[in-house]
Specification:
The chain has helices at residues 12-29, 35-41, 46-74, 76-94, 100-128, 132-159, 165-184, 199-203, 207-234, 238-267, 269-289, 292-301, 303-319, 325-353, 358-376, 382-397. By secondary structure, the chain is mainly alpha-helical.
Amino acid sequence: MQSGGGILRQPISVWATAFAAVVAFMGIGLVDPILPSIAQGLKATPSQVSLLFTSYFLVTAVAMLITGWVSSRIGGKRTLLAGLTLVILFAALAGTSTSVAELVGFRAGWGLGNALFVATALAVIVGAASGGAESAIILYEAALGLGISAGPLVGALLGDWNWRAPFFGTATLMAVGFVLIVTLLKAPPKPAAKTSLSAPIRALAHGGLSTTAFTALFYNFAFFTVLAFTPFILNMSPYGIGAVFFGWGVCVALSSVFAAPPLQRKIGSVNVLHLALALLAVFQIGIALSGHAGIIVFTVLSGIPIGLNNTVFTESAMEVSDAPRPVASAGYNFVRWMGGALAPFIATKLGEEIGVAVPYVLGAVCCLVGMAILYARRHHLRVLSKVDEDHTVHDAATVPTY
């Protein structure tokens, strides 16, 4: 870490943004424990319920392309507040749904708000955090891990009472985040130049960014196979599913913050990605071939490579090209969230019609494809070696603070 400030020594505006980010990421895992309950309550099939993820991430992915355009015109703070407003509105409406179609539609609106908030939150945290971009990214990934781990718990606790309650709970927590952003975040200056709508797509012409993004697409397919389909094969109560994915989320958070940075320095970012993708493939095969106890163990353990990937992919996307960070983030997230949009429905449909092991075998194959892309296009990622070396030299010369 840089000596100017540790991960925990941040301005209060950064903590306010990070809190809202935690709640935003809770929305990803929130529905996990209640997927079977939603299917039962709305008389829907697992693949129909999986569209809650598909609509959310499809809209999130496409909306990433406009986040820079919006924030460069109305400013980061207003963009955050606009995103929060949409999440509050559509999360509350989701709780009123009377059919799967309504719920899927409201989750799509939720995804739009999530895109505006999440993409801008990263840029705001990087701009306002002490300790430089690396500390800010680790803090952001810590918020992601905490949100993902807390989401299933909140979903289980509220969902055991009523499957609608988690949606109203999220809307309430996001309203708290809205108040914190309004009162504690000083509006950052608008960018000197306005971002064009085509900027994120043009940024993907860079070989390093496109390599990172398309590898992350296959990784996210594997990631969301675990997240979206596993609740249906656990055959547990909302509390049981929530506990499993809480353990999984803790692994995501801990490996994101405490394992990824030292591994990057020791073996390099690209090698960490190869290692994490290989581990995730092994754990997915473990889920496919195991009985009930093995499914639980391998699901929880899969959080380790997922946490490593989340941090290293995010940092790589920020560093690998010369595009402005918000533009690089938008282009990268547009591609990678497509994996999150495709996986839930495809995996669940395959599990319904062919066999419950098939989605995980496909997820493992996606990890191997990601590794092949990294290897075939490794010359585009050489700049990351220089970034890793710079961090190593810096750490050798300074004492980290926390």
